[in-house]
Design goal:
Blueprint lengths: L11 H27 L8 E5 L4 E6 L2 E7 L4 E7 L3 E7 L3 E7 L3 E7 L3 E6 L4 E6 L4 E6 L4 E5 L2 E5 L3 E5 L5 E3 L1
Parallel strand pairs: 3-5, 4-6, 5-7, 6-8, 7-9, 8-10, 9-11
Antiparallel strand pairs: 1-4, 2-3, 10-13, 11-12, 13-14
């Protein structure tokens, strides 16, 4: 007879979340690696937008652009470089973050204490929308698209990853 009766360390939900996190890290690493190989020829100084420091912060530097707008004690941050475009909007205690590079487009929105993150690396299109205290993540690399929103997730192309913590859904391209 065993002297220790240890309960199962991880539930099935915990194991599923760990697998999803591992896949997310792998997908992000692949997308980052591909983007450093040579996603585009244009080069622009990085731009960073933050709100509430400015009510509606819009920055443009040569080819890169970003925008951030926050309402009602929320925080919106976006950054772009190398012809990327990033936009973040947050309201009602939400937190929204986006980053784009190499002709990528990242769109992030949140409200109701939601947290969203969109990363478009090397020409991808990423869209993330979070609501009601949940979090969503979307990462897209060259020629790929990822969407994480309240209705679920969608991945198109080999360098895409999306995860919705409200529904528990995730996908990888």
């Amino acid at each position: 007879m065993s002297t220790s009766s240890r309960p199962r360390v991880l539930s099935s939900l915990g194991r599923r979340m760990m697998r999803t996190a591992a896949v997310a890290a792998l997908g992000f690493g692949v997308a980052l690696g591909v983007s450093t190989v040579g996603a585009g020829a244009a080069s622009a100084a990085p731009v960073v937008c933050t709100s509430p420091a400015t009510a509606n912060d819009i920055q443009v530097s040569e080819f890169a652009s970003c925008g951030a707008q926050a309402f009602e004690q929320s925080v919106a941050r976006s950054a772009a470089m190398d012809s990327g475009t990033a936009v973040s909007v947050a309201q009602n205690f939400g937190s929204s973050n986006s980053f784009a590079t190499g002709f990528g487009t990242a769109l992030s929105a949140s409200r109701g204490n939601g947290q969203s993150l969109a990363l478009a690396i090397g020409g991808g299109i990423a869209h993330s929308w979070a609501d009601d205290g949940y979090a969503t993540f979307a990462v897209a690399g060259w020629g790929s698209g990822a969407t994480a929103e309240q209705g679920g997730v969608n991945c198109v192309g080999p360098l895409s990853f999306a995860w919705n913590l409200r529904t528990g859904q995730s996908c990888i391209g």
